[in-house]
Amino acid sequence: MKIKRSLALFLCSILLFTGCSHESRQEVSKTFFAMDTVMNFSVYGDEKILDQTETIISDLESQMSVTDSSSQIAALNKNGSVTLTGDTRTLVQKALSLCERTDGALDLSIYPIVCVWGFTTGKYQVPDDNTISSLLPLVDYKQIQYEPESGEISLPNDMEIDLGSVAKGYAGQKVADYLKENGVTSGLLSLGGNIQAIGNKPDGSPWKIGIQDPRNNEEPMMVLSISDQSVVTSGGYERYFEEDGKTYWHIMDPKTGYPAENGLISVTIVGDDGMLCDGLSTSLFVMGLEKAADFWGKSNDFEAVFVTDDGTVYITEGLKNSFALTDDYQDTVVQVIKR
Known about the structure:
Largest sheet: 9 strands, mixed
Shape: globular
Structural class: alpha+beta
Number of helices: 8
């Protein structure tokens, strides 16, 4: 069995603070490990402004981590019901709405399936069909009973949920909002595969965000020019294992209990809401190109980049003027998806 996992997504490989000679504030940065990834926050401002950011992330993780026995989500999975509070309550409500909006392509209750494949422990395995069949009835967000007014939530017996598909996006947005409220007008937050841009670069130009080639995660294949938005990429190359010559990645199709296979190998979402971008990067990967393009066509709150297994790149028309291929990928076929 061959196991591979990539944490560096090249989303910050081309993030150069340029044109700063007239900027009175200095770049300050902070790097730490949280939410199962390396986070790097770089902003222009007082160094003390970053001290609170790690605390914000730590507090969110302690509330929401499925593996922290003291978290609200762990308590829910153990006891079957709890009253959610604070950010956990807010995020669960938003996530359930997104589950409904995507018709279950995003499903918080996929967690037992992910576990049985070994992606939560690193003990990778291909489960037999009977095991998958026995777990699939528990994968259905519609069976989650949630009262928005009180925060009370309950799960059917043996169901477990996980917020991993939306938590980093929510966290990045929360940190960005905190920094803006405290006077930061230029900064870049990297949370693994999630990028949160604050304003523009100090010289007023957009941030240049490199998106890696999912078939060669050592190289960026395209660059997006972004201002004050979130950029989140999901791809099969992030976490996967190989067995008997076949590749199995961590993005699961809630309808089948198996890794999503539909011709897509990478999905990048760009938008104003980090949590939305995070959840859609996974759910549109599950949908496949045709359904994902149709979903985008009926929406007005995000743009997307899709890479298919033949190397073709599809971009939604809102990114036409902010998208460019890198020098080594000028021969790549690019198609524009229009409404």
